[in-house]
Amino acid sequence: MKSSRFERNVVLLGSSGVGKTSIVTKYTSGIFDSMSSHATVGVSFTAQTFMVNNIMFTMNIWDTAGQERYKSLASIYFKDKDAIIIIFSLDAKSTFSDINEWHSELKKYYAKFPPILIVGNKADIEECSFEVDSKTAAKFAESIGANYLEVSAKTGQNIEKLFNDVASALINSSEVQDAEQHEKMIKLTDFSDENKQKCC
């Protein structure tokens, strides 16, 4: 790894009302506003710098609107991102079903997916109120090559872990890419040396 500083772009996707903005606000300011019901219009942006694995990491977070009329706009912002977080509400099965639509949309823009994390929000509510059970969500996440985590924007449960996990995944991905690039360079050097010997 060449540098101990990282800056990466992360986008949050999900249906309207699942708590995307509440999760970001809880993470960046520690605040949960139970009275706020304002949906994101278009997209909002915030940047957060923190330490993870002894590395200074700056995460640029793009919070997209989930309303149907803004979905085409959201696609503009989830292109070319380094990681994708898709959020649903544990007490609303329809928002979990919508993940399929988001995932299908992503396929249009990524030949190879960046790290994806499926997040079930409102983990603080009574489990009997869950419309999506944890095993089903985790199994679905695994089926699309994503990780799964349950959080609560209200209590802060797993909020810091969410963004630390994303940062760690991005750092690991970068290290793998560096190693692969280094290996390619070695192979090219070996090939060049071999050709030189043949020419002699």
Automatic annotation (TrEMBL):
Pfam (any one): Ras
GO molecular function terms listed in the Swiss-Prot or TrEMBL record: GTP binding; GTPase activity
InterPro entries, per database record: P-loop_NTPase, Small_GTP-bd, Small_GTPase
This protein's UniProt keywords: Nucleotide-binding
Taxonomy, superkingdom: Eukaryota
Protein name listed in UniProt: Ras-related protein Rab-30
